[in-house]
Design a protein that fits this description.
Elements: E1 48-49, E2 63-64, H1 70-76, H2 88-104, H3 108-118, E3 119-127, E4 130-133, H4 134-145, E5 148-161, E6 164-175, E7 181-194, E8 201-208, H5 215-219, H6 224-238, H7 248-251, H8 263-280, H9 283-293, E9 294-301, E10 306-307, H10 309-320, E11 323-336, E12 339-350, E13 356-370, E14 373-381
């Protein structure tokens, strides 16, 4: 069994490097392969805007911000596992994500200028579980990019529903001093709003990465009041009681629900809720359920390993021996086609010390029909 790093899987489900984002981006290494894209390759003929500059000054950065360049950018940043994008709002979100990747790959100054278009002064971004204002977020990105060059690659998923998006994508990171490169992948959940002005669809709040060991490091960008509010929010999760009801939708509510209209989508939601219920009943109950929920040829991807079903169950048994992990509620549940992206809150209680902490998990799930049952055939978890 692949034991390296597995024990923390159920405890925090997180990565440890500081996130950087084109709407957000994470500098870390795992088994995914990123597409290497140079700044020269991204200097394309996309419709661009530049602030007017007085004669004799340095030219302003070129920003890709057209709503008409979706097809062009989608060819440069393809989605490996596409799902339906139907409404005009969903198409606008797709365009903003693609333009975000394009601008990020042109360098920090271009991305920062793009921020005035993609974000509002009140926009928030949660980096590894730390809620940052736009200025704090930009400061954290600027600090990291002084030491690393990060380029966006392909999307593996772009699940868009209502005014929400969940994305999973490749990055390539190069240390500026050593020139050593590494490939990685990122998960994000982003809430958009159509503001109705000329800039249209913009980010309200984003979540990139989950609470991890770098929580204190990223928190250094917050002021004292923000840190206190953050801790209060975590304490609320720690002390939250799971309702005593057989209505699983009420028991495990979705804070920001999005439309789930198809029969397939409703079945996916039902089995996800049942997975939460079996998990919270204890390891023995969940282990039996796992054979129903997961396909026998399951591939379960963590930040460090890819596990088969037997290895995954063994890893969960090892973790359950030391830590009682409860799944509390969903932030998001986006379902499109035969894919789901979920972001949810957990509590972890150390069985030796009794210490209880709050965390969160991001997961992308690919489902398939197996006779009269719906099963997960592949999962990616942070």
């Amino acid at each position: 069994m692949k034991k390296n790093g597995i024990k923390t899987l159920a405890v925090s489900m997180t990565t440890m490097a500081l996130l950087l984002s084109g709407v957000g981006c994470e500098a870390k290494t795992d088994t995914d392969t990123a597409t290497h894209i140079t700044k020269e390759e991204t200097a394309t003929d996309s419709v661009e805007t530049a602030a007017a500059e007085p004669a004799g000054t340095e030219p302003a950065v070129n920003i890709s911000d057209s709503y008409d360049n979706t097809e062009e950018l989608a060819a440069r940043f393809p989605v490996v596992n596409p799902t339906p994008i139907d409404t005009q709002m969903e198409k606008n979100i797709q365009n903003r994500l693609l333009n975000g990747f394009e601008n990020w790959n042109r360098g920090y100054e271009t991305w920062e200028a793009w921020g005035d278009i993609l974000y509002t002064p009140d926009s928030l971004y949660n980096v590894h579980g730390v809620k940052l204002t736009l200025k704090e977020y930009q400061s954290s990105m600027n600090a990291q990019l002084k030491s690393s060059d990060i380029q966006m690659g392909n999307f593996h998923n772009m699940i868009i529903s209502g005014d929400w998006a969940a994305i999973r994508y490749d990055i390539s990171t190069t240390d500026r001093q050593s020139e050593k490169s590494s490939d990685g992948s990122v998960m994000e959940f982003v809430h958009f709003k159509d503001y109705g002005d000329e800039r249209g669809t913009r980010v309200v709040e984003g979540w990139a990465g989950t609470k991890g060991e770098d929580f204190e490091q990223v928190s250094s960008f917050q002021n004292d009041n923000e840190k206190a509010a953050q801790q209060e929010s975590l304490d609320a999760i720690v002390h939250k009681e799971i309702p005593d009801t057989t209505d699983l939708e009420a028991k495990y509510p979705v804070t920001s629900p999005t439309p789930i209209d198809s029969d397939m989508g409703k079945k996916i939601k039902d089995v996800i809720l049942n997975d939460f219920e079996k998990w919270n009943q204890g390891f023995d109950s969940w282990e039996k359920w796992a054979d129903t929920y997961y396909d026998s040829s399951l591939q379960y991807h963590t930040s460090k390993d890819t596990l088969n079903l037997s290895e995954y169950k063994a890893a969960m048994k090892e973790s359950a021996d030391s830590t009682d992990t409860k799944r509390i509620q969903f932030d998001n549940m986006l379902i499109s086609g035969d894919w789901a992206a979920i972001h949810y809150r957990i509590t972890n209680e150390d069985k030796t010390t009794g210490e209880k902490t709050a965390g969160d998990v991001m997961q992308f799930l690919h489902f398939a029909q197996d006779g009269d049952q719906l099963k997960v055939i592949e999962s990616w978890t942070k």
